[in-house]
């Protein structure tokens, strides 16, 4: 096997491993931060705002949208 064939096979494999490792590390960090923010009793509001700003920039969202669906019992209370 020539040296060229080795490089042609090894370089894409190493690149794939690096990209996969970055994706796993980013996902793990995101899940860790979301869990940590949910369990902290004394929230630092500036940190929470900064975290959500970074997430919205990385996902391409420009504004927050309320996706909450009213529950059936909430609608009945408002009509009464």
From TrEMBL:
Please report the name of this protein according to its UniProt entry: Cytochrome c oxidase assembly protein COX16 homolog, mitochondrial
Tell me the superkingdom of the source.
Eukaryota
List keywords of the entry alphabetically.
Membrane, Transmembrane, Transmembrane helix
Q: Where is this region: Disordered?
A: 55-80
Supply the source organism for this entry.
Schistosoma japonicum
Which parts pass through the membrane?
Answer: 6-28
């Amino acid at each position: 096997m020539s040296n060229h064939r080795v490089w042609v096979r090894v370089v894409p494999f190493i690149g794939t491993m690096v990209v996969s490792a970055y994706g796993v590390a980013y996902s793990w960090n995101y899940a860790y931060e979301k869990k940590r923010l949910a369990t902290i009793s004394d929230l630092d509001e500036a940190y929470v705002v900064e975290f959500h700003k970074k997430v919205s920039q990385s996902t391409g969202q420009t504004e927050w949208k309320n996706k909450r669906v009213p529950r059936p019992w909430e609608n009945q209370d408002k009509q009464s």
